Amino acid sequence: MVTVLVLGGGGQVGRELALAQWPSDTRLIVRDRTSADITNRRGVLRLVDREGPDLIVNAAAYTRVDDAEDERDVAFAVNATGVGYLAEAADAAGATLIHLSTDYVFDGTKDGWYSEEDQPSPASVYGESKLAGERAALRARKAIVLRTSWVYGSARPNFVLTVRRLARERDELGVVADQFGCPTAAKDIAGAIVRIVEQGASELGLFHLAAPDDASWWDLAEAAISQMEPPRNPVLNRLTTDQFPTRARRPANSRLDSSKLLAGYGIQLPPWRATLASISAELNSR
Ligand SMILES: NC(=O)c1ccc[n+]([C@@H]2O[C@H](COP(=O)([O-])OP(=O)(O)OC[C@H]3O[C@@H](n4cnc5c(N)ncnc54)[C@H](OP(=O)(O)O)[C@@H]3O)[C@@H](O)[C@H]2O)c1
Question: 175 in a domain, yes or no?
Fold first, then answer.
């Protein structure tokens, strides 16, 4: 029996981890923020000591990128200090810590795809806090850090759901067309984590885990709207980053090269349009 403890079970990825097809010999324990706050060191240590997990999967995070600019302490408490507690607890239990991070650890100035070898240089408080969290996780004796990108799914607020709502409400939308990343579905991230666990989580360290192809926010919006039923055809204007100012700076390029994960675990996610189509079908049927 393999015991897997998931933290952050109420989030996009956390929910998909709870729904995923785990091997039959898995004892899966999923905790959301109300039942396990990762900033509570004693609580984390006690929970891990009681459940004795073989693996701890951390899907908990402070993800409000703009708010983090004004809530630095809270963002660091969850994204860095709390992760340190999980690393400490994992070491005490002899468990492997699987932790999620973000493409926003990069400033976006590279010309090309980012590999795990590239030097992070976050442009936002959120990115700084997540980079500190990666380092805290990697201090555990057995840790896997999975950097992902532009996460969306069928539940909880995310870009795809927002665009679908706006397309129903408005005849004209403006979407940023000069930032590029790899739109990655929460259910694909969860599926990849299951496969890593199935393979004994034997390859440790830092990996990129994102869709293999890129998009701008405009591309993603255009595809999401084109898949809506009943159809909607708002005018979709291309905006520059300067025309859509946000409190936190976002990288213009956060394309993640996930080939190390393919080499280490044989895992490659589907192209983003394929997964988006299946999520759109699910949303259309509601
Ligand atoms: N969303 C993206 O576009 C994106 C992109 C790249 C990387 N990532 C990374 O991918 C991972 C999963 O993201 P996601 O989209 O699933 O995020 P999400 O939907 O915001 O879920 C995060 C979850 O963590 C919970 N949480 C917050 N503080 C907590 C605490 N102190 N203790 C326990 N739980 C806490 C939140 O609780 P509440 O429900 O109460 O808020 C929420 O349920 C994160 O590491 C994130 O940084 C996300």
Answer: no
